[in-house]
Amino acid sequence: MIEGLVEHPVRWNRVGVTVLVLAAALGLAGCERKQQGQHAGGPPPVTVAKPVVRDIVEMDEFTGRFDAVGSVDIRARVGGYLESVNFKDGAMVKEGDLLFVIDRRPYKAALDQAEASLVSAQTRFDLAKVELERAERLAKSGAGTEQSLDQRRQGFLAGQADLAGAKAAVEQARLNYEFTEVRAPITGRISRKLVTVGNLINADSTLLTTLVTTDPIYFYFDIDERSFLAYQRLAQQGVNSTGDSTGLPVAVMLTDEKEFKHKGRLDFTDNRVDAATGTMRLRAAIPNKDQFLTPGLFGRIAVPGSPKYQGVMLPDEAILSDLDRRYVYVVAPDGSVKQQPVRLGSRTDNYRIIREGLKGDETVVINGLQRVRMGGGKVTPQPLELPAVWHGLMALGPPPGAGGAPPGGDKKDGSKPGDSKK
To answer: Which residues form a coiled coil (predicted)?
Structure first.
């Protein structure tokens, strides 16, 4: 047949044209069916919600570090050879617990010698007292001379001074003997031993170990000059959302945490701004009953930075950016969508505060932002109520069209997405 077509080129041209026309017709029919299918499905579905509007206090976040309330470098007050170590490395110790013992024998001998000298001084003093009393009686009766009386009085005063010196020597020897037992000056967590048994300890110089308190614990952080001035003005206005005068309530989040779990209060502000950095040092006291927080850890602290007011909030997932512009998609009652520029603030309960651009009664696209452009300016809104605390899009259930529970429907545990867990 091919040979026949080659022999008749006119017939071949007619067949080719026919094939091309049929293919174009089939393609146009497929495109028309596809457009009809899209039109029949309607605008794409998206999850929408009203912004969260409630009384809030804006929180400013700063980076800082934990530090112990009390910290002690343990050193011996007397020298000698280390005889024993009476704690486990890293253990919790109480005030007064025995930590180290230095060889006590030389100090026991010195104490015994001082006590013996005290007995001798006491004997001499008693004799001088008796002789003084005898000289006074003789002087009154005229049998003694004034010179003899003065000599006895001098001997008495010398014996009294010797006795006081002997008592002081005994007290010093007793203290040295007691200092051979190194005890914990505070309650806290002890470090490892830095000297092993048998080493020579130099008084007041050899570092034996360190000890830090753990409950409560301090959190130090620096704030910029502008924030410090704002806090000063708030303090002058008496702004404290809790009505408590013990310090502003704060919360700290560790580097591996996503929420500010550790509550505390500000209890210290430094007395001057650092001229080199332009910052002010602040401190918060954080309870640490479970001993989890450790001195030296980094963290972020949230400090109240405004008086209480009614704020408009949205999840970060609903906010888009175009260079330096931030905007959200607002849905009208007829399903049309428009961009609404917004100015953002800080975060509260994992929501982003909207300072400008929204009043709170708008309907905003929360999930399905990529489908907005597919709808040609219109969408099918699927409303839900935002929870009190934002836990992310996964907490809202499957996205529209993903099957399973509809957006805004019941979750697996039977609760509504708007229900907040206390």
So the answer is: none
Distance (Å) of CA 40 to CA 36, 43, 382: 6, 9, 18
- The DSSP bridge partners found for residue 80 are 201
Parallel, antiparallel or unpaired: strands 380-383 and 45-49: parallel
Give the model's confidence band at 119: pLDDT under 50 very low, under 70 low, under 90 confident, else very high.
very high
Q: At what angle are helices 146-179 and 105-141 packed, to 10 degrees?
A: 160
What Å distances lie between residue 78 and 166, 173, 196, 263, 420, CA to CA? 21, 11, 17, 43, 62
For the purposes of burial, counting CB atoms within 10 Å of the CB of 342, is it exposed (0-12), middle (13-18) or buried (19 or more)?
buried
Q: What is the pLDDT at residue 342?
A: 93
CA distance 91 to 189: 6
| Contact in structure between 227 and 304 (CB atoms under 8 Å) | no
Tell whether the torsion through CA atoms of 210, 211, 214 and 218 is positive or negative. Answer: negative
| Nearby residues of 297 by Cβ (< 8 Å), 6 or more positions away | 65, 66, 254, 255
Q: CA dihedral defined by 326, 327, 328, 332, rounded to 10 degrees?
A: 170
pLDDT tens, residue by residue, 344-364: 888 888 889 998 899 989 999
Domains and CATH numbers, the chain: 45-53+312-393 (2.40.420.20), 59-69+214-304 (2.40.30.170), 71-204 (2.40.50.100)
Give, as one character, the DSSP assignment of residue 243: -
Do 366 and 49 contact (CB within 8 A), yes or no? yes
CB atoms within 10 A of CB 58: 19
Sign for the CA dihedral angle at 114, 118, 120, 124 comes to: positive
What region does 326 belong to: left with phi over 0, alpha with psi -120 to 50, or beta?
beta
Residue in the structure block whose two tokens are 């997932």: 317
Residues making up the chain, counted from first to last = 422
Name the range with the highest mean pLDDT among 30-39, 303-312, 410-419. Answer: 303-312
Joined tokens for residue 116: 């013996």
pTM: predicted TM-score of the whole model, two decimal places:
0.64
Of 56, 168, 177, the C-alpha closest to 111 is 177
- Nearest 5°: the CA angle 63, 69, 74 is 125
- Find, among 223, 203, 181, the residue nearest to 85 by Cα: 181
Residue in 194, 169, 228, 180 with CA at minimum distance from that of residue 89: 194
- Tokens for 289, please give them: 């009953």
**Cα separation of 271 and 269, whole Å?**
7
